[in-house]
Amino acid sequence: MQTENMYDTDKENLNDSSNSSKNGKTQVSTSPKHIFNQQRTDYLQWEDYFMSVALLSAQRSKDPNKQVGACIVNQENKIVSIGYNGMPMGCNDSEMPWCKSDPENKLNSKYLYVCHAEMNAILNKNSSDVKNCRIYVTLFPCNECAKLIIQSGIKTVIFKTRTAGKKYFVSFEATQKLFEMAGVEFRRYLPQREEVVLDLGMVRVRTAFVSWKGWKS
Ligand SMILES: [Zn+2]
Fold first, then answer.
1. pLDDT reported for residue 215
2. Cα dihedral across residues 88, 90, 93, 99: positive or negative
3. What is the spatial distance between Cα 83 and Cα 44, in angstroms, rounded to a whole number?
4. Ligand 1 geometric centre to CA of 49 (Å)
5. Is 118 a catalytic residue?
6. Which one, of 61, 63, 60, 83, lies nearest residue 71 by Cα?
7. Which of 68, 132, 137, 214 is paired with 100 by a 20 to 30 Å CA distance?
8. Given this model, what pLDDT does residue 20 score?
9. How far is the CA of 171 from the centre of ligand 1 (A)?
């Protein structure tokens, strides 16, 4: 773990050798400089990274009941699109219904209007296509999104949960059937860590690295 003291003593150790030989044996220096030269070991693994992006995207959703996110990644581990569930472009979110059903007006149901996260991610891609890509989704895709996933050429689906209301049971079964027939691999996401914490409270460059006199906190 890096500490403030480490930066404070950087100057004293500029000429330190990370490894030194004594009595024919190589000794590993524990000087701050040596520690600084080592890579971090607690960095985000790919799977955690991409699912985190999907989860973060879900936070953009205005749906009061279900927030879903998706992240599409190509074979080079590059993100080519993200998406979350929301109303179509040009449709005023504040004027659209967000309830599941309204016995007095069948048109007052979000299901008739909301674009799912997978749909938005596929349509909003920043690459020419998403062939052979994989998609990270916070919720197992419904059968409508399954069709889109298959037709777009996505080959792998990594989902976080398959828990949803009864309405989706048949839909999920159809999705599974479609994926199996079309040869789309799907698997549950296995996290390598419990949580990812994002501190948005303050972003400040360490003064040990930057000595800009005009800096004002
Ligand atoms: Zn869907």
1. 56
2. negative
3. 21
4. 22
5. yes
6. 83
7. 137
8. 43
9. 9
pLDDT above 50 (res 21): no
Of 12, 47, 118, 194, which one is the catalytic site residue? 118
Residue 195 Cα to ligand 1 midpoint, Å, equals: 26
Amino acid at 101: S
Of residues 194, 145, 140, the one with CA closest to residue 172: 140
Average pLDDT of the residues of the chain = 84
Is-contact 105 112, C-beta < 8 A?
no
Find residue 21's DSSP bridge partners: 26
In the predicted model, is pLDDT for residue 1 greater than 50?
no
Ligand 1 midpoint to CA 144 (Å): 5
Phi, psi (rounded to 5 degrees) for 4 = -60, -40
Rounded average pLDDT over 99-109:
92
Of 17-26, 59-68, 88-97, 169-178, the one with minimum mean pLDDT is 17-26
Rounded to the nearest 10°, the torsion over CA 116, 117, 119, 123 is 140
